[in-house]
Write a structure and sequence with these properties.
Blueprint (H helix, E strand, L loop, with lengths): L1 H8 L6 H14 L4 H20 L39 H11 L6 H18 L8 H19 L4 H16 L6 H32 L6 E6 L3 H12 L4 E7 L6 H10 L4 E5 L3 H4 L5 E5 L2 E2 L5 E4 L2 H10 L4 E4 L52 E4 L6 E3 L4 E2 L4 H11 L1
Parallel strand pairs: 1-2, 1-4, 2-3, 4-7, 7-9
Antiparallel strand pairs: 5-6, 6-8, 9-10
Helix pairs in contact: 4-5, 4-6, 5-7, 5-8, 6-7, 7-8, 8-9
Length: 412
Amino acid sequence: QREQQGQGGGGGGKPKQQQQSQQKQVQQKQPHSPAGKGKLVTDNKVAVKSQQQEPAKPPDSCGRVEILSHLKLYDRTIPPTQALSFTSSKVHPAFVKLGVQMARDIVVGSNARCAALICAVKTFISDYKCPKTKEIRSHLNIALKPCFSYLSQCRMMCVSMENFIKHIKLQITKSSPDLTESEAREELLEACEDFFKENIYLAGKSITEKAVNRIVNGDTILIFKKSQLILHILLEAKAQNKEFKVVVVDSRPDLSGVSSCERLTAAGIPCSYVYINSSTYIMKKVTKVMLAADALLANGYVLGPVGTAMMGLIANTYNKPVIVCCETYKFCERVQTDSILYNELADPDSMLKTLNAEESPVAGWRESPNTRLVNLVYDTTPPALVSIVITEIAELPCSSAPVVLRRGAVKM
């Protein structure tokens, strides 16, 4: 009876051990079968193709610090056009040119970069032709999207550029569908021109008039690095025959304060040039500190070039007034209290440059496993260190930033 049950349980088939051994043999033969081999070859081709389409990434030895691992590190050793992850035919030549200029630090400064972006958008709109089956207000935003993506791949956009992009997208969406293509194009070009005139040109002129009234005879004004707005204020004060001195504080790696000192001395303004490590000593002789801002955040913190917070802290220690000049279109709804959450990493090798062309002591930092160079672009200054912010609207405290942002939202 046991033999009959064993034969019946097998169902006339093979024992379980023989079936399992046959299944293992089939699984071992499958990778060597023509179908399996073709599948592996196809996967390899897809993997190689995906690697070719991905933009080039900087090497791991480019100064990656764990606390700053969320920030994008741009590789300056390759051309920006080589890192495109989409077809270059969708990017207008004006944007390609601007992206290269931004990546190579040819166009610097928040106002200059925003003005260059406005010119690129105007060129794009002038050359744009809407398909017959599309509406310009829906298709133009789609056509501009790869251009803006390309710029962000070249370098992180500043707050002024982001605010202009929001503005022009809103104007495109609000354009009437009853307008012809030429009429809509003229309306958008006029909107770009008005944005530049109101928020950059006229705003800078109004800030200059207010800031010049703060300068009196006998002042010693400290400025940090280079700002076109601050230079325009000082030159205008000199044109009004005001007698004052200027102390230019500079820092590596760009040493842009040299250009500020040359321009001021050419206008006949007495200048002193010091490095940032000497600012504590020179602050005793200063009467006012005038700083520029790349953005004013919603919580009142000032986003500026790295070193701005140090100037504000030293001036506050010596009870010196800190005046920040900033246009209202640079106000941002973002809230930030440190320089780590939102920042930009510049090329760490630029910190190796020396004035006498000698080799830097840390030139071989890439070969050292315990050495990292970090070149941050921005820092945040707490509102407690700022005496007043001069805008085209009025002279305001940092705490009034939400009011200005609410006013701008209502205006839109």
